[in-house]
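Same chain as my last thread, 78 residues:
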Amino acid sequence: MNEYTHSIRTEIDGPVRQYEYEDRTVLVADFGLVEGSIDVVDGTAIVVIDDDQFEFSVPAGTDRAIINNGVVTIEMER
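reply #2:
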């Protein structure tokens, strides 16, 4: 597991974690207790929370991207 702190929102500095499994990689980012949406388009994850939009690159082969209670989970096959 790799963990590093990344400024996700200006008022929140939360951990971003990457988990490596035999068949997949999972990225998890905590935006705090918020509701929002996520979509992946051409290697870019787009997270929309309130009136704010956050974009970051994700590897090809992203299989699933969800947001639940402000926690973004992105799964990719290896």
